[in-house]
Amino acid sequence: MTEAPIRRRPGTPCWVSLMVHSLGTTREFYGALFGWTFVTVPGAQQFGPYVRAVLDGKEVAGIGELAPGRRMPLAWTTYLATDDADTTAEAIRGCGGTVGVGPLDAGEEGRLAMASDPAGALFGIWQARAHTGTAVAGPHGTPVWNELVTSEAAWVSTFYRSVFGYDLEATDESGEDVVTLRLDGRAVATLHGVGEGLGPIRASHWMTYFAVGDPDATARRVVELGGHVIEPPWETAAGRVATLADPEGAVFSVVRSATR
Length: 260
Hints:
Helix content: 10-25%
Largest sheet: 8 strands, mixed
Order of helices and strands: EHEEEEHEEEEHEEEEHEEE
Distance between the termini: 33 Å
Number of helices: 4
Radius of gyration: 17 Å
Strand order of the largest sheet: 2-3-4-1-5-8-7-6
């Protein structure tokens, strides 16, 4: 029996992807770290070599290769679901954001655009067709949470509410500037204002959290595989977390428990 297509409420994080210089090296790293295998997506090759990471037959993330000589900061990109990429792109522009790529079709898979919020954080929007996004969340190596790290959460949260209709829940835990984005009462992402804590190299950005059984062991494994530890494991209200980077410098976080 064919499974019914997944429809995600617009604004729900639905996919994460990464563009790199060496697809082969990156596949080896994440395959060893998370147990991913990879499938080539023929229709996506119009944008260059592209594969999807698979766990137990379920697609969890995408990795593409940049054109030779193209230099740009490497980062995991969060995609937010939409029912109409063109209408959402117009809303992004109208609310002070920027649409840098698209909207355009990705074969029969869906329609996408790449945009940035008024603070400069890059994100994608995805109108699903054949490809509905991340198929599983929870097991080791799956993306389980997305957080925007920016200078001031309250300011940029108005942009996301205007575009996607989120309900905003501001919290002030230990003086932290955190806004939770909710849809139908369910938390789907957080915005974390860090003020001057943003570095000169990493400006406002979305952070992908992957589930792992042991963040300490994962941090050690990252180093063994040629990556780096950006922030050693520490305890948070959401679980034990570490911030890491792959061999090409793309930053991501891992968390032992992502219960929200």
